[in-house]
Design a protein that fits this description.
homodimer, mainly alpha, Tetracycline Repressor, domain 2
């Protein structure tokens, strides 16, 4: 992806996190990115395509900041899930935009296919981590990877909302989330 | 609460579920309730107070349609939580409005105290059900009621979003939610 396009998407995500999807004005995104509105339309065609592209960008960003490699499958799984909540402005902005776009898809059906495919990708990624843990013996083989992936990703979204609304601090949200994941995906004896 | 006031709040909740909080126009609420906008201002003072009152109404409605009495503490807990998701237009409307108002509170700080106190009440209610289950022997006494209440209510919100966006059907969302709750609050042996 070109730097220019990335900068425009970053500006769009920041605007969505600031004003919400329905309040989003292409002119404000342009001002934030220090370009003309025409350039945004040139890159993204229309407002709807801009929103879908911003949503995909949000998904890619989350993939990047939750990346972990070290440890058993179960350790990586826990670290990846808990890192959806971080005391970091970029993470907070990204999560706010995700929640906004997801909930806007209740009203704006053009966003639904992208929400569905990103959620499916997220569930698949979690299922893959569970299978890795089952292969290395750190996760109980009776757990169904895909079902648990759906459950864990929904739980992350629930705690994320508590965090973004300020009902839980970052530490509280991370600790509650880690405790829930630990109960749902218990360590195998001796692992 | 007077019938008139209830009718106005029902109209407000329906409008929030249709257009979102930020798109809410008092004139549209008035039209839906077949009254004048002046009457809405007379009852609620301003738009902000109307939103807060609508939010409280959403909380009261959820209390009503999730009410259960029969069975062990654990059975009642499961039924109450799963009934946050029902194939019923009024429940869907109520949940959509709750998600909207909750997420608007990220941007609109005037909604935060009400979101916080309703969430705290919800967590307390779940904790009370857990204590009932611990007293009647159906729930493990080592579970911490308040912490688990925070966790379970967040999980309900996560699955509710999946359901409202159409990623999960009503049955899928209820089944996934029941499975997660069963794992987090396992039956005590012999109960």
């Amino acid at each position: 992806m070109s730097d220019r396009r990335t900068a425009l998407l970053t500006a769009a995500v920041q605007e969505i996190a600031r004003t919400g999807t329905r309040g989003l004005r292409v002119e404000e995104v342009a001002k934030r990115a220090n370009v003309s509105p025409a350039l945004i339309y040139h890159h993204f065609g229309d407002r709807s395509t801009l929103l879908q592209s911003a949503l995909e960008h949000v998904g890619d960003q989350a993939d990047a900041y939750t990346s972990h490699n070290e440890g058993t499958g179960r350790e990586v799984l826990l670290a990846v899930l808990v890192d959806e909540i971080q005391d970091d402005d970029a993470v907070r902005t990204n999560s706010t935009a995700w929640g906004e776009l997801r909930d806007s898809s209740i009203f704006d059906v053009t966003l639904r296919p992208t929400i569905e495919s990103l959620t499916a990708r997220w569930v698949d990624d979690i299922a893959e981590l569970i299978r890795t843990g089952q292969d290395d013996g750190s996760i109980d083989p009776s757990i169904m990877p895909h079902e648990m992936g759906m459950c864990l990703s929904a739980i992350v979204e629930g705690f994320s909302a508590r965090w973004l609304t300020g009902i839980l601090t970052t530490d509280q949200a991370r600790n509650h989330l880690a405790a829930a994941v630990s109960l749902l995906v218990p360590a195998t004896p001796g692992s």
